[in-house]
Amino acid sequence: MRIGHFKRIELADTIFIVNKNGYIGDAVKKEIEFAKRNNKKIEYLENINEENAEIIHDNYMEISFPKHEYEDIQNFLDEQGYCYTTRVYKETNKYKVGELYRAPWGDVLRIDEVTKYWKLSERPFHDKITANQKKVLRKYSEDMGLPYEWIKFSRGD
């Protein structure tokens, strides 16, 4: 592999992997790792085969959730095909529409929508969260003059 490949990846916003019949060679795996380290969007010609899934999966940045929510999120994804999360403080502007992220329990998740709100009362399903949850969310956003992000996501497979 020539240095020119990495230079092109540095200059690109997105790299496109031609994985005919699901095959990804060792050199391309290194390019994928380099692209991930440089926050590049990666698209594939075909679905990832089982042999490469773990390698590719490890290259996704993780999206975090409180551990006590893992089961509920997975149930929502199973039943509805999508779920929502609220992000505050340092977690805002981190997740991008169309990007794939690795969930702590192993799923690959796709960000479908990101909407910014400045008041908790504007957030969808505001009436469904507890007073304590509202207090914590306000502490790390509204009280600091920062926005909330309401993120819709689904499984990326």
What does this structure look like?
This protein has helices spanning about 5-10, 25-35, 50-55, 70-80, 130-140, and strands at about 15, 40-45, 85, 100, 110-115, 150-155. By secondary structure, the chain is an alpha+beta fold. The strands form two sheets. Strands 3-6-5-4 form a four-stranded antiparallel beta sheet.
Task: Describe what is shown at a glance.
By secondary structure, the protein is an alpha+beta fold. It contains 5 helices and 6 strands.
Specify Rg, calculated over alpha carbons: 18 Å
Major sheet: size, sense and barrel closure?
A: 4 strands, antiparallel
Class computed from helices, strands and strand pairing? alpha+beta
The average pLDDT value, as a whole number, equals 84
Q: What proportion of the residues form beta strands (DSSP E)?
A: 15-25%
CATH fold-level topology of the largest domain: Archaeosine Trna-guanine Transglycosylase, Chain: A, domain 4
- Shape, principal axes of CA atoms: elongated
CATH architecture descriptor text of the largest domain: Roll
Low-pLDDT runs: none
Properties at a glance:
157 residues; alpha+beta; Archaeosine Trna-guanine Transglycosylase, Chain: A, domain 4; 2 domains; 4-stranded antiparallel beta sheet; two-stranded parallel ribbon; 31% helix
